[in-house]
Description:
The complex is a heterodimer of chains A (245) and B (251). In chain A, 38% of the residues lie in helices and 25% in strands. Chain A is built from 9 helices and 10 strands. Chain A has helices at residues 43-51, 72-77, 94-104, 111-120, 136-148, 166-181, 193-199, 217-222, 229-244, and strands at residues 5-14, 17-27, 32-36, 58-63, 66-67, 79-82, 154-158, 185-189, 202-207, 210-216. The longest helix of chain A has 16 residues, at 166-181. Chain A starts with a strand and ends with a helix. The radius of gyration of chain B is 18 Å and the shape is globular. Classes of the chains: A alpha/beta (245), B mainly alpha (251). Chains A and B meet through helix 2 and helix 3 of A and helix 1 and helix 4 of B. Bound molecules: adenosine-5'-triphosphate and magnesium ion. The site of adenosine-5'-triphosphate has 12 residues of chain A, from strand 2 and helix 1.
Amino acid sequence: MIPAIEIRGAEKRFDHLLALNSVNLTIEQGEFFALLGPNGAGKTTLINLLSGLSRPSAGYLRVMGHDVVHDYKEARRNLGVVPQELVFDPFFSVRETLRIQSGYFGIQHNDDWIDEILSNLQLSDKAESNMRTLSGGMKRRVLIAQALVHRPPVIVLDEPTAGVDVELRQTLWRFIKRLNQDGHTILLTTHYLEEAETLCNRIAILKKGNLIKLDTTANLLKDSASGSLEEVFVSIMQEGVESTS
Amino acid sequence: MIGFRTLLIKEIMRFWKVSFQTILAPLVSTLLYLVVFAHVLSTHADIYPGVSYGVFLIPGLMMMAMLQNSFANSSSSLIQSKVTGNLVFVLLTPLSELEFYWAYVVAAMVRGMIVGTVVLFTALFFFKLPFENPGWILLFGCLSTIIASTLGIIAGIAAEKFDQMAAWQNFIILPLTFLSGAFYSISSLASPWDMISRFNPFLYMIDGFRYGFFSHSDVSPWLSLFIVGSVCVILLWVTLSILKSGWRLRG
Ligand SMILES: Nc1ncnc2c1ncn2[C@@H]1O[C@H](COP(=O)(O)OP(=O)(O)OP(=O)(O)O)[C@@H](O)[C@H]1O
Ligand SMILES: [Mg+2]
């Protein structure tokens, strides 16, 4: 089976900063995968390379077998990205936003699916509201809805739960889990490690642009005394400090 | 095709929802120019035989309004989307560079044409204007707004902040449109200004456009067509290269 995501020797350089250093990573279809790492580790940079918002300095990336640079149309059709930044277009209502996003992907008459997404994200009563009038957490949920309008097989969520309240976080994860059970591949970044621990089957840890750990969640937890991912994460980060000093 | 159409309609809705600012405001300022200049210079001798200064002024003002509004539309839409970050919604999609380009250009042309047309119809209440060669009017109207919209795209991509955008507007677009013969015939200019003016491509847009109304122009309409057409093709090529390179959009 073609991997959902295949990253080989991906490198990203910003002037003097090497934000990603030759990253290799393969994510199989159907995985629920966590990409972890401290602030500035390069998580968003890697996601930007995948989505085409940024171009690799070296190496290549594929989504469902499609090169993100040379075969960008197919790669992007197969990918839904929830950006980390809370962005929105103040000119439109929630429904208009989602219809427009569907249209960009060549999809018309998408209201049945849009209504389903909205109801799963508990946004149905906000469908006709202007984007400007939504709270931060609601805007975040619209961002998630926007990433799903074209039913992408691979879904990338860059800190989807930042600023979302507890109850909604649970509803949100139920929805994402269902998408995963339906066969969608999920790649997620988060700073709430217990989310990664309970949801994801595999975890990669980035640090200063290097992929320093890649293993199943079960294996990672096995190594720790208390059995919490947080402890594992902290100790891995410390190791890194020792080995680099 | 659906992708292109969606982006086009979105761009048209964007200015239409604030048409007070994007249509009505420029309309009022253009009509003020017309009223003031036509009044002050009403005793001016005819520019062309049988063409009074007020009548002569209308195509130039129309074209100036069309150019400025086309430019303003694509440039401000892009810079706003870049600064607020919502351009990612377009950049994440399978839209090609060509679809992206034409959607922004056509939407900007539509705004320019709406403003131009309303200026024209309002002016027709007060002046009697000939329409000698409607084909030339349309041709120069289209080519010129394509050029202005394309410049707007380049400016929108190049500028990283709103004040850089204002610099484009004030130091490039405004002087080029004002010094393009919108208010006068270049044959009335003293040397060396008549020579210098001839290097301004905007002059040929207005002169060719005016030929469509009066069958009278400072330079041959074919020369104007050649120059305006060439500028159009060069700018299209430059812009598509910029878009393909991902410069300032896909860092
Ligand atoms: N456009 C850019 N220009 C220059 N440097 C950049 C740019 N984008 C990111 N960087 C740098 O690259 C590094 C990685 O940033 P990135 O946003 O990928 O981190 P992250 O892992 O997503 O962090 P966070 O958890 O805070 O979101 C940082 O040092 C950042 O300053
Ligand atoms: Mg990030």
